[in-house]
Amino acid sequence: MGSAYETLTEALVTRIGIDPERLAPDRTFADLALDSMALVELAVALDEHTEAVLPLEDLNTLTLAEAAALLDAPGGAGR
């Protein structure tokens, strides 16, 4: 996994408070049981480190690896 995955998981641990042992590339945001406020907080944290924007409306169905790939995509997700 690349730096986008590391940025994503770091934000989940430091900003949202997810136990790092719960994180894996194939886990979805729904698996992590993030509420809407946590998803917004995650989006803010990611915005501070990347120009990409994740689609909040579809975020629960994405795996962490898929979300990282969107962040790494040319032009970034949602741009």
Give the H and E element order: HHH
CATH topology descriptor:
Non-ribosomal Peptide Synthetase Peptidyl Carrier Protein, Chain A
Distance between the termini: 22 Å
* Percent range of helical residues: 40-55%
Low-confidence stretches: none
- What's the CATH first level? Mainly Alpha
What is the CATH homology-level superfamily? ACP-like
Alpha-carbon Rg, integer: 11 Å
- How many H/I helical runs? 3
Our estimate of the beta-strand percent is under 5%
> How many domains, in number, for the residues?
1
Mean pLDDT: 86
Q: What is the molecular shape?
A: globular
Architecture (CATH level 2) name: Orthogonal Bundle
What structural class is derived from the secondary structure elements? mainly alpha
Number of strands: 0
Description:
The chain has three helices and no strands. It is globular and about 30 Å long. The protein is 47% helix and 0% strand. It has a single domain, classed as Non-ribosomal Peptide Synthetase Peptidyl Carrier Protein, Chain A, CATH 1.10.1200.10. The mean pLDDT is 86. With 79 residues, it is mainly α.
